Amino acid sequence: MLGMLALAVHDLRMLMTTADVAAAMSVEGLLGTDAVFAADLHALRPQRGQAVSAANLRNLLSGSPIVASHKGPECTRVQDAYSLRCAPQVHGAARDTLAHAASVADAELASAVDNPVLTPDGRVESNGNFHGAPVAYVLDFLAIAVADVASMSERRTDRFLDQARNHGLPPFLAHEVGVDSGLMIAQYTAAGIVSELKRLAAPASVDSIPSSAMQEDHVSMGWAAARKLRRALDGLTRVLAIEVMTSARGLALRAPLEAGPATGAVARHVADSGAVPGPDRFLSPEIEALVESVRSGRIAALASESATLS
Protein backbone atom coordinates (compact mmCIF):
# COMPACT_ATOMS: atom_id res chain seq x y z
CA MET A 1 0.00 0.00 0.00
CA LEU A 2 2.78 2.43 0.89
CA GLY A 3 4.62 1.70 -2.35
CA MET A 4 1.49 2.41 -4.34
CA LEU A 5 0.91 5.63 -2.38
CA ALA A 6 4.47 6.80 -3.05
CA LEU A 7 4.05 6.11 -6.77
CA ALA A 8 0.70 7.92 -6.81
CA VAL A 9 2.15 10.98 -5.06
CA HIS A 10 5.00 11.11 -7.59
CA ASP A 11 2.70 10.76 -10.60
CA LEU A 12 0.02 13.11 -9.32
CA ARG A 13 2.50 15.94 -8.70
CA MET A 14 3.29 15.91 -12.41
CA LEU A 15 -0.34 15.48 -13.42
CA MET A 16 -1.43 18.48 -11.37
CA THR A 17 1.08 20.68 -13.20
CA THR A 18 -0.23 19.23 -16.46
CA ALA A 19 -3.80 20.02 -15.37
CA ASP A 20 -2.78 23.66 -14.93
CA VAL A 21 -1.21 23.63 -18.40
CA ALA A 22 -4.36 22.15 -19.94
CA ALA A 23 -6.57 24.67 -18.13
CA ALA A 24 -4.43 27.58 -19.32
CA MET A 25 -4.69 26.36 -22.92
CA SER A 26 -8.47 26.14 -22.53
CA VAL A 27 -8.77 29.60 -20.98
CA GLU A 28 -6.74 30.98 -23.86
CA GLY A 29 -8.52 29.05 -26.61
CA LEU A 30 -11.98 29.91 -25.25
CA LEU A 31 -11.10 33.62 -25.03
CA GLY A 32 -11.24 33.62 -21.25
CA THR A 33 -9.66 36.18 -18.98
CA ASP A 34 -6.53 35.80 -16.88
CA ALA A 35 -7.62 38.64 -14.56
CA VAL A 36 -9.27 36.18 -12.17
CA PHE A 37 -5.89 34.56 -11.48
CA ALA A 38 -4.40 37.73 -9.97
CA ALA A 39 -2.32 37.12 -6.87
CA ASP A 40 -4.20 39.64 -4.71
CA LEU A 41 -7.53 37.92 -5.41
CA HIS A 42 -6.16 34.56 -4.32
CA ALA A 43 -4.55 36.10 -1.24
CA LEU A 44 -8.10 36.78 -0.04
CA ARG A 45 -8.48 33.03 0.39
CA PRO A 46 -5.06 31.82 1.55
CA GLN A 47 -5.31 28.19 0.53
CA ARG A 48 -1.79 27.07 -0.32
CA GLY A 49 -2.55 24.86 -3.30
CA GLN A 50 -4.89 27.43 -4.82
CA ALA A 51 -2.13 30.05 -4.78
CA VAL A 52 0.24 27.65 -6.55
CA SER A 53 -2.23 26.83 -9.32
CA ALA A 54 -3.19 30.48 -9.78
CA ALA A 55 0.49 31.41 -10.13
CA ASN A 56 0.94 28.65 -12.69
CA LEU A 57 -2.01 29.94 -14.73
CA ARG A 58 -0.73 33.51 -14.61
CA ASN A 59 2.69 32.43 -15.79
CA LEU A 60 1.32 30.14 -18.50
CA LEU A 61 -0.89 32.89 -19.94
CA SER A 62 1.71 35.64 -19.68
CA GLY A 63 2.55 37.17 -23.03
CA SER A 64 -0.36 35.58 -24.87
CA PRO A 65 -1.47 37.57 -27.92
CA ILE A 66 -4.83 35.79 -27.80
CA VAL A 67 -5.47 36.92 -24.22
CA ALA A 68 -4.32 40.44 -25.06
CA SER A 69 -6.64 40.57 -28.09
CA HIS A 70 -9.82 40.78 -26.01
CA LYS A 71 -8.71 42.73 -22.95
CA GLY A 72 -10.11 46.03 -24.18
CA PRO A 73 -13.50 47.67 -23.52
CA GLU A 74 -14.92 45.96 -26.60
CA CYS A 75 -15.04 42.69 -24.65
CA THR A 76 -18.54 42.35 -23.18
CA ARG A 77 -17.96 39.12 -21.25
CA VAL A 78 -18.91 39.57 -17.58
CA GLN A 79 -17.20 36.44 -16.29
CA ASP A 80 -16.06 33.03 -17.44
CA ALA A 81 -17.69 29.71 -16.61
CA TYR A 82 -16.65 27.93 -13.43
CA SER A 83 -14.52 25.35 -15.27
CA LEU A 84 -12.27 28.21 -16.42
CA ARG A 85 -12.59 30.75 -13.63
CA CYS A 86 -12.38 28.30 -10.73
CA ALA A 87 -9.57 26.10 -12.01
CA PRO A 88 -7.12 27.28 -9.29
CA GLN A 89 -9.67 26.56 -6.57
CA VAL A 90 -10.28 22.97 -7.72
CA HIS A 91 -6.73 22.21 -8.77
CA GLY A 92 -5.52 23.86 -5.57
CA ALA A 93 -7.76 21.73 -3.38
CA ALA A 94 -6.38 18.66 -5.14
CA ARG A 95 -2.84 19.91 -4.52
CA ASP A 96 -3.59 20.34 -0.82
CA THR A 97 -5.05 16.83 -0.71
CA LEU A 98 -1.87 15.59 -2.37
CA ALA A 99 0.28 17.41 0.19
CA HIS A 100 -1.63 15.72 3.00
CA ALA A 101 -1.20 12.33 1.35
CA ALA A 102 2.53 12.98 0.94
CA SER A 103 2.83 13.82 4.65
CA VAL A 104 1.18 10.49 5.51
CA ALA A 105 3.58 8.69 3.19
CA ASP A 106 6.56 10.48 4.75
CA ALA A 107 5.47 9.44 8.25
CA GLU A 108 4.87 5.88 7.10
CA LEU A 109 8.29 5.66 5.47
CA ALA A 110 9.79 6.57 8.85
CA SER A 111 7.69 3.97 10.69
CA ALA A 112 8.17 0.49 12.07
CA VAL A 113 5.07 -1.48 11.16
CA ASP A 114 6.21 -4.99 12.07
CA ASN A 115 4.21 -7.20 14.38
CA PRO A 116 5.64 -8.16 16.74
CA VAL A 117 8.10 -5.29 16.91
CA LEU A 118 11.57 -5.24 18.43
CA THR A 119 11.87 -2.04 20.50
CA PRO A 120 15.13 -0.10 20.92
CA ASP A 121 15.44 -1.37 24.51
CA GLY A 122 15.22 -4.99 23.35
CA ARG A 123 11.57 -5.87 24.05
CA VAL A 124 9.51 -7.93 21.62
CA GLU A 125 6.00 -6.54 21.69
CA SER A 126 2.74 -7.25 19.90
CA ASN A 127 1.22 -4.09 18.46
CA GLY A 128 -1.19 -2.70 15.88
CA ASN A 129 1.11 -0.47 13.84
CA PHE A 130 0.58 -2.67 10.80
CA HIS A 131 -3.00 -1.45 10.42
CA GLY A 132 -3.30 0.33 7.09
CA ALA A 133 -5.96 2.92 7.93
CA PRO A 134 -3.71 6.02 7.55
CA VAL A 135 -2.57 4.90 4.11
CA ALA A 136 -5.95 3.59 3.01
CA TYR A 137 -7.72 6.83 3.88
CA VAL A 138 -5.43 9.02 1.78
CA LEU A 139 -5.49 6.57 -1.13
CA ASP A 140 -9.26 6.99 -1.13
CA PHE A 141 -8.96 10.75 -0.62
CA LEU A 142 -6.71 11.08 -3.66
CA ALA A 143 -9.20 9.16 -5.80
CA ILE A 144 -11.81 11.81 -4.97
CA ALA A 145 -9.47 14.63 -6.00
CA VAL A 146 -8.49 12.82 -9.20
CA ALA A 147 -12.13 12.37 -10.20
CA ASP A 148 -12.95 16.02 -9.62
CA VAL A 149 -9.94 17.40 -11.49
CA ALA A 150 -10.79 15.14 -14.43
CA SER A 151 -14.44 16.18 -14.28
CA MET A 152 -13.50 19.86 -14.58
CA SER A 153 -11.10 19.08 -17.42
CA GLU A 154 -13.82 17.28 -19.37
CA ARG A 155 -16.15 20.26 -18.92
CA ARG A 156 -13.55 22.55 -20.50
CA THR A 157 -13.17 20.11 -23.39
CA ASP A 158 -16.93 20.09 -23.90
CA ARG A 159 -17.09 23.89 -24.05
CA PHE A 160 -14.77 23.90 -27.07
CA LEU A 161 -17.20 21.73 -29.04
CA ASP A 162 -20.37 23.73 -28.37
CA GLN A 163 -20.85 26.56 -30.86
CA ALA A 164 -23.04 28.38 -28.32
CA ARG A 165 -20.17 28.50 -25.80
CA ASN A 166 -16.88 28.39 -27.74
CA HIS A 167 -16.94 32.03 -28.90
CA GLY A 168 -16.63 31.78 -32.63
CA LEU A 169 -15.09 28.37 -33.21
CA PRO A 170 -16.80 25.84 -35.52
CA PRO A 171 -19.16 23.28 -33.96
CA PHE A 172 -17.21 20.32 -32.58
CA LEU A 173 -14.09 22.02 -34.02
CA ALA A 174 -15.04 20.26 -37.24
CA HIS A 175 -13.16 20.78 -40.51
CA GLU A 176 -16.28 20.77 -42.67
CA VAL A 177 -19.26 21.75 -40.55
CA GLY A 178 -22.26 19.51 -41.11
CA VAL A 179 -20.13 16.76 -42.60
CA ASP A 180 -17.32 16.13 -40.12
CA SER A 181 -17.83 15.31 -36.44
CA GLY A 182 -14.56 16.94 -35.37
CA LEU A 183 -13.59 15.99 -31.83
CA MET A 184 -17.06 14.88 -30.75
CA ILE A 185 -15.93 11.30 -30.13
CA ALA A 186 -12.88 12.48 -28.18
CA GLN A 187 -15.22 14.27 -25.80
CA TYR A 188 -17.36 11.12 -25.55
CA THR A 189 -14.22 9.26 -24.53
CA ALA A 190 -13.37 11.82 -21.84
CA ALA A 191 -16.95 11.77 -20.53
CA GLY A 192 -16.94 7.98 -20.30
CA ILE A 193 -13.66 7.98 -18.39
CA VAL A 194 -14.89 10.66 -15.97
CA SER A 195 -17.99 8.60 -15.29
CA GLU A 196 -15.75 5.66 -14.38
CA LEU A 197 -13.58 7.88 -12.18
CA LYS A 198 -16.63 8.88 -10.17
CA ARG A 199 -17.29 5.22 -9.45
CA LEU A 200 -13.64 4.68 -8.54
CA ALA A 201 -13.91 7.56 -6.05
CA ALA A 202 -16.19 5.44 -3.84
CA PRO A 203 -14.01 4.65 -0.81
CA ALA A 204 -12.63 1.17 -0.27
CA SER A 205 -11.52 1.93 3.28
CA VAL A 206 -15.07 1.99 4.65
CA ASP A 207 -15.35 -1.70 3.87
CA SER A 208 -13.99 -4.45 6.10
CA ILE A 209 -14.32 -8.21 5.81
CA PRO A 210 -13.14 -10.10 8.91
CA SER A 211 -10.67 -12.96 8.55
CA SER A 212 -8.56 -15.33 10.65
CA ALA A 213 -11.45 -16.62 12.75
CA MET A 214 -12.45 -13.04 13.65
CA GLN A 215 -9.02 -12.25 15.11
CA GLU A 216 -8.50 -9.87 12.20
CA ASP A 217 -11.97 -8.41 12.60
CA HIS A 218 -11.30 -4.94 11.16
CA VAL A 219 -9.03 -4.45 8.17
CA SER A 220 -8.19 -1.35 6.14
CA MET A 221 -8.89 -2.63 2.62
CA GLY A 222 -6.10 -0.27 1.59
CA TRP A 223 -4.82 -2.50 -1.19
CA ALA A 224 -8.18 -2.18 -2.93
CA ALA A 225 -7.93 1.59 -2.50
CA ALA A 226 -4.43 1.50 -3.98
CA ARG A 227 -5.45 -0.51 -7.01
CA LYS A 228 -8.41 1.68 -7.88
CA LEU A 229 -6.31 4.84 -7.43
CA ARG A 230 -3.77 3.49 -9.93
CA ARG A 231 -6.62 2.95 -12.39
CA ALA A 232 -7.95 6.44 -11.65
CA LEU A 233 -4.58 8.04 -12.35
CA ASP A 234 -4.55 6.42 -15.77
CA GLY A 235 -8.02 7.86 -16.39
CA LEU A 236 -6.95 11.36 -15.37
CA THR A 237 -3.94 11.08 -17.68
CA ARG A 238 -6.24 10.29 -20.60
CA VAL A 239 -8.76 13.02 -19.82
CA LEU A 240 -6.01 15.64 -19.60
CA ALA A 241 -4.52 14.40 -22.88
CA ILE A 242 -7.88 14.87 -24.57
CA GLU A 243 -8.20 18.40 -23.16
CA VAL A 244 -4.70 19.25 -24.39
CA MET A 245 -5.54 17.89 -27.84
CA THR A 246 -8.85 19.77 -27.96
CA SER A 247 -7.47 23.07 -26.70
CA ALA A 248 -4.54 22.86 -29.11
CA ARG A 249 -6.98 22.49 -32.01
CA GLY A 250 -8.96 25.43 -30.66
CA LEU A 251 -5.81 27.54 -30.48
CA ALA A 252 -4.89 26.57 -34.05
CA LEU A 253 -8.32 27.69 -35.23
CA ARG A 254 -7.77 31.12 -33.64
CA ALA A 255 -5.12 31.90 -36.26
CA PRO A 256 -3.78 34.42 -37.15
CA LEU A 257 -3.87 35.14 -33.41
CA GLU A 258 -1.06 33.27 -31.67
CA ALA A 259 -0.88 31.47 -28.37
CA GLY A 260 1.53 32.51 -25.63
CA PRO A 261 5.07 31.11 -25.38
CA ALA A 262 4.28 28.29 -22.92
CA THR A 263 0.91 27.20 -24.29
CA GLY A 264 2.18 27.65 -27.83
CA ALA A 265 5.06 25.24 -27.19
CA VAL A 266 2.59 22.58 -26.08
CA ALA A 267 0.28 23.29 -29.04
CA ARG A 268 3.20 22.84 -31.45
CA HIS A 269 4.03 19.52 -29.83
CA VAL A 270 0.42 18.43 -30.30
CA ALA A 271 0.59 19.41 -33.96
CA ASP A 272 3.88 17.55 -34.37
CA SER A 273 2.18 14.43 -32.99
CA GLY A 274 -0.34 14.62 -35.82
CA ALA A 275 -3.33 15.98 -33.92
CA VAL A 276 -4.07 18.92 -36.23
CA PRO A 277 -7.33 20.39 -37.57
CA GLY A 278 -8.59 18.53 -40.62
CA PRO A 279 -11.17 16.06 -41.94
CA ASP A 280 -12.47 13.26 -39.74
CA ARG A 281 -10.14 10.36 -39.07
CA PHE A 282 -9.50 7.59 -36.55
CA LEU A 283 -8.57 9.53 -33.41
CA SER A 284 -7.24 6.74 -31.20
CA PRO A 285 -3.58 6.95 -32.39
CA GLU A 286 -3.52 10.71 -31.80
CA ILE A 287 -5.07 10.37 -28.36
CA GLU A 288 -2.65 7.59 -27.39
CA ALA A 289 0.36 9.63 -28.53
CA LEU A 290 -0.72 12.50 -26.30
CA VAL A 291 -1.55 10.17 -23.41
CA GLU A 292 2.09 9.10 -23.52
CA SER A 293 3.21 12.75 -23.66
CA VAL A 294 1.19 13.48 -20.54
CA ARG A 295 2.23 10.28 -18.71
CA SER A 296 5.93 10.85 -19.40
CA GLY A 297 5.77 14.44 -18.17
CA ARG A 298 6.56 15.82 -21.62
CA ILE A 299 3.63 18.23 -21.69
CA ALA A 300 4.51 19.72 -18.30
CA ALA A 301 8.19 19.91 -19.25
CA LEU A 302 7.51 21.74 -22.52
CA ALA A 303 5.40 24.37 -20.77
CA SER A 304 8.01 24.71 -18.03
CA GLU A 305 10.62 25.73 -20.60
CA SER A 306 8.76 29.03 -21.13
CA ALA A 307 6.98 29.53 -17.80
CA THR A 308 7.89 29.03 -14.15
CA LEU A 309 5.65 26.23 -12.88
CA SER A 310 5.18 24.36 -9.62
From TrEMBL:
Pfam families: Lyase_aromatic (PF00221). Keywords: Lyase. It comes from the Bacteria. This is Histidine ammonia-lyase. InterPro entries: Aromatic_Lyase, L-Aspartase-like. It comes from Agromyces marinus.
